[in-house]
Amino acid sequence: MIRKTMILACLLVLGWIAHLSPVQAQAVAPLTLAEAQKISEAAEARARQDNWNVVIAVLDAGGHLIALRRMDGTQIGSVDVAQKKAETAVKFKRSTKVFEESVKSGNLHILALGVTPVEGGLPILRDGQVIGSIGISGVTSVQDGIIAAAGIEAL
To answer: Which positions carry the signal peptide feature in this UniProt record (predicted)?
Structure first.
């Protein structure tokens, strides 16, 4: 009898806590393959404008690869770097440029977070929620950032 009463009390408390919790986040549609391809196509088009050879990585909200493009002539090391930039952007919900600026200003403790502090990674937002990210690597970090922004604009 005491055990049943305790279980019922726990359930009531949990229900009361759930009732008091902040408004639950609205479900946002996940990033689709078609959207990831549209983003990577726009990024590639922007890179081609200036004859920049890059790798374009698009991840979902969980940090899983959806689309990857390695333009002809791009060094293979950029495959990993583009994915790491995208991973940093999705995990920390911010541009990798934020981390780059932090390191440049002397905040080296940021490196302990395991981030890739180089411009070129951006989160992809829908209704204010992160649904994925893009990472670009192959040219300068500023140029990578320009290409990433062009990809995001396509969505």
So the answer is: 1-25
Q: Which of 90, 70, 102, 103 is nearest to 134 (CA)?
A: 90
Distance CA 72, CA 25 (A): 42
- Indicate the pTM of the whole model: 0.83
With beta carbons less than 8 A apart as the criterion, state whether 110 and 143 touch. no
pLDDT 10s digits, 11-29: 333 444 444 445 555 789 9
Q: How crowded is residue 89: how many other Cβ atoms within 10 Å of its Cβ?
A: 30
pLDDT digits (tens, 9 = 90+) for 80-119: 999 999 999 999 999 999 999 999 999 999 999 999 999 9
Q: What are phi and psi of 64, to 5 degrees?
A: -95, 140
Please report which helix (H) or strand (E) contains residue 104, including its range.
helix 96-104
| Spans of all domains in the chain | 28-153
28-153 carries CATH number 3.30.450.150: yes
In this structure, the number of other CB atoms found within 10 A of the CB of residue 95 comes to 21
